[in-house]
Amino acid sequence: MTTTGTTTGTTTGTTTGTTTGTTTGTTTGTTTGTTTGTTTGTTTGTTTGTTTGTTTGTTTGPATAAVRAVGTAHVRVEGREKVTGAARYAGEIPFAGLAHGWLALSTVARGRIRAIGTEAVLAMPGVLTVLHHGNAPHLETDYVGVLGTRPDPTCAVFQHDRVPHLGWPVALVVAETPEQAREAAEALVVDYEPQPHDVDFTAGHPDAYPLDGHLPAVTDKGDLEARLAASAVVLDVEYTTPEEHHHPMEPHAATARWDDGVLELTDSNQGATWVVSELANLFSLDPASLRVRSEHVGGGFGSKGVRAHQVAAVMAATALRRPIRVVLTRRQMFTLAGHRSPTVQRIRLGADADGRLRALDHRSLSRTSTVYEFVEPSAGVARVMYEADAHHTENRVVRLDVPSPTWMRAPGEAPGAFALEAALDELAEKCGIDPIELRLRNEPDRGPVSGLPFAGRNLRACFEEGARRFGWAGRDPRPGVRRDGRWLLGTGTAAASFPAGAGPSTATITAEADGGFTVRIGAADIGTGARTALTLVAADALDVPTDRIRVRIGDSAFGPAMIAGGSMGTRSWAWAVTAAARELRERLVPGMDVPAQGITVRSDTTDAVAALAQKERHSFGAQFAEVAVDPATGEVRVRRMLGVFAAGRIVNPLTARGQLTGGMIWGISMALHEEAARDASSGGPVGADLAGYHVATHADVPHIEADWVDDPDPDDPVGIKGIGEIGIVGAAAAVANAVWHATGVRHRSLPIRPDRVLTAGRGA
User: Fold this and answer.
1) Catalytic annotation, pick one of 243, 278, 421, 725
2) Does the pTM of the predicted model rise above 0.85?
3) pLDDT tens, 279-322?
4) C-alpha distances in angstroms, 670 versus 366, 667, 749, 761?
5) Which residues, at least 6 apart from 84, have a Cβ–Cβ distance to it below 8 Å?
6) How does 366-399 read in b/e, with b if 16+ C-beta sit within 10 Å?
7) Which of 356, 57, 391 has its CA nearest to residue 232?
8) Is 243 a catalytic residue?
9) In the chain, pLDDT over 70 holds for what percent of residues?
10) DSSP secondary structure code for residue 340 in this structure
11) How far apart are CA 666 and CA 247, in angstroms?
């Protein structure tokens, strides 16, 4: 065998084996240890460094490199605990003396509380106390949290008599058992002074205004109106998406207790140090007197931050000096756990006859509550995806009497990509150009708005590989011509992008006397496989097998760390783990005895990640879908989907594929099922349960594939970008574009329900 190339680095240890053949190249570094065997063959080149050891005997065979953990499929390290029930979640961990709280929610959409009938409830069996605005402690809300935002007043419970939306927390009933607490809460009589409310979300609402979020509200480049007027082809369309809800399988749950002057919260959240910071601010506590643990989390999708149930539990635990658990019901999650705002998006595109964009205008309206400003930044995706001489993007909100929206998987990008990618498909039809070709003709070489260079933009590779595997070249572009019996068949595609950032994190690694290594980091594994990914990263960084790594997460005592959100979790934590491992290896002398207490180092990546902002940094992808539509019933069936992504170095292909296909399945759900209807009369959600709120189930999920192209980030120590959200982006647009190809009818409002298909068909 012949090996040609360059090897640079340090090898420490013992190698026993066989090498036969020719090695040509340069080896730079230090080899320390013992090699047993004889090397037979020819070595040509330059060796620089020091070789210490003994070579004896005879060996014959191929040269092999050390097996790396990152990039190899690995089952979840906590998988056995989860499938056997040994893994305990926040709502099922036992505590001595545990009492239970049940939130009572408002039954009016706007008004004031006149009176609360606590006397009768306090006389009920097992009831310990009723907390409400008349007896609850004061909370501090005038601060900016660690995520750069002010707290949603919904979590600052029982501070006044005002009711800003249906389902506002008005009291917490605490009892010995959850059954007693629920019965008493449902018996609590609250007298309201109702006031008129407004939950009507429309494009022309007169009170809409631009709102900055984590992105500027408005961006402008060039003379938009002049470029539109000069364009050979102009598209001016409006798209809508409905209110959507997270609904992780594990409900929101928290247990608060005081232990020797320390407030401990056992919680289900997306960042333990995030929760510590918010609670410390709300209750005016020293952060050192709080500890939050969240070892196992059954999904979050953006909803598991600081909510009313945690704050209410802390209040009750402080008042009663007992452990207090508060768990939200599925129905309560519709009003207390946040949601994705509905959107109305207007897109105007101006292009030459060959499809090259001259003008791109993306304006999005979303909804927020009257107590908190939150914007769904749907127009942000247009600032990255396509080049045009003139750009205008704008995110606006209208304040209504509804619960506060929040981050939901791919906030902004998921609804924004539906509108933008559906509009690109419509433009391709107008220009008579293949949808993939149109997108590639408008590929930017720098950020279309920012002007910053891209830190890798492999969208073209995603489309080329996806088109080959999906069989796009054989597609008849004419709509409504393919049939399978009664079914009309169509295929569609869409592009995807999501930012690839990183947040400052700290990590500690201890070299143990038994030869193992313990990694401690305040990460949160919300079902993504983060524990396993960090195990692989640590193994490679320490150059040891994975079975010598123990990863402990979900504890604020481990120090500040990035939350599990924004597709930044694994990247941020891996960076900190890699930095700690590098320092630990420098301290470990070969052959040294590790003391009983171990050797521990700590890293902090605050300065290291700051430089990432100097480039446009994103994951990209190409989504493909094939659908079948029954024109007699309006039923839409997705038959197959393919997503090909450029999302950095993939740490664990096994869990990564699950993340990507999970996002794509959510895209099916978004396109065809998910829609939270709000009743104008009551101001509340209709069918506030998983029977009334439809999501994709096994019967809806077709043959679905996710894969990736080589795309490591050169500025990241492991090459990671982020995969948590890119899978959902563009998936709904690919389905919607496929429905047009099947039927010849455009659907600009999601979900594409059977009644809408039938109505549109009759209109056509």
Assistant:
1) 725
2) yes
3) 999 999 999 999 999 999 999 999 999 999 999 999 999 999 99
4) 17, 5, 11, 21
5) none
6) bbbbbbbbbbbbbbbbbbbbbbbbbbbbbbbbbb
7) 356
8) no
9) 91
10) B
11) 12
